[in-house]
Specification:
Blueprint: H1 22-42, H2 47-56, E1 66-69, H3 75-82, E2 88-92, H4 95-102, E3 109-112, E4 128-135, H5 143-151, E5 157-163, H6 164-169, H7 171-181, E6 185-196, E7 201-210
Parallel strand pairs: 1-2, 1-4, 2-3, 4-5
Antiparallel strand pairs: 5-7, 6-7
Helix pairs in contact: 1-4, 2-3
């Protein structure tokens, strides 16, 4: 039986992947914050659990600090915590999304940070990083891959998704190949699968390890 994720009570913004500037993006997430969890869960949001499980395959010390970049309302943090990660900080550009994330009590600290700009953390402060559902033309540029790796110590892992919109842009996978070819990181994991089944949208999960 096919699960009907989307219901009349849970709307999904049609323009979420078509936003043209930061002001429009901030406004959308400001207005969406309170219903965001219900809407994504109703659409079968699979990437948080997929990313948490992928990261757990390569991280022995799950008490080591993880930065959840673009944490939103904390769905990714909940998935990481459920997989055994115990020291989680989150960063997001939306005050309203961070307010919802704070209620979940899974983060040690929540930071104001824009994935399209340098994050307000020191290199080496986190053993591993995650960016779940963050890479998209309207949300985060491919250069975030470089920034994330630059924050990690040698051996640290970065788990992230590229949804079908990001994959279609080519620049994201192009930057990923350049980073790997340059020897900055090793690709430990790559798996395509469900992202938002209710929207018929898939994504690839990647785990990079900084060399």
């Amino acid at each position: 039986m096919t699960r009907a994720y989307k219901t009349p009570e849970t709307e999904f913004p049609d323009d979420v992947y078509e936003l043209q500037d930061s002001a429009a993006t901030r406004a959308l997430y400001r207005d969406w914050a309170e219903s965001y969890d219900a809407d994504l869960v109703a659409n079968g949001y699979a990437s948080p659990a997929r990313c948490a499980q992928a990261l757990a395959r390569f991280v022995d010390d799950r008490s080591a600090p993880v930065l959840d970049v673009g944490c939103g309302t904390g769905l990714s943090g909940e998935a990481l915590a459920a997989t055994g990660f115990t020291t989680l900080d989150g960063a997001d550009f939306s005050d309203e999304m961070l307010q919802v994330a704070a209620r979940k009590d899974v983060y040690r600290e929540l930071l104001k940070g824009d994935a399209a700009r340098p994050l307000p953390v020191e290199p080496g402060a986190y053993a591993n990083l995650a960016a779940v559902g963050v890479f998209s033309p309207a949300h985060a540029p491919p250069e975030l891959i470089d920034q994330a790796l630059g924050l990690l110590p040698s051996g640290g892992c970065f788990v992230f998704t590229l949804n079908e919109h990001a994959l279609a842009e080519k620049v994201y996978e192009g930057r990923l190949r350049e980073v790997i070819d340059a020897g900055a990181a090793e690709l430990l994991f790559k798996q395509h699968g469900p992202h938002l089944p209710g929207q018929s949208l898939e994504a690839t999960v990647y785990v990079l390890q900084r060399r």
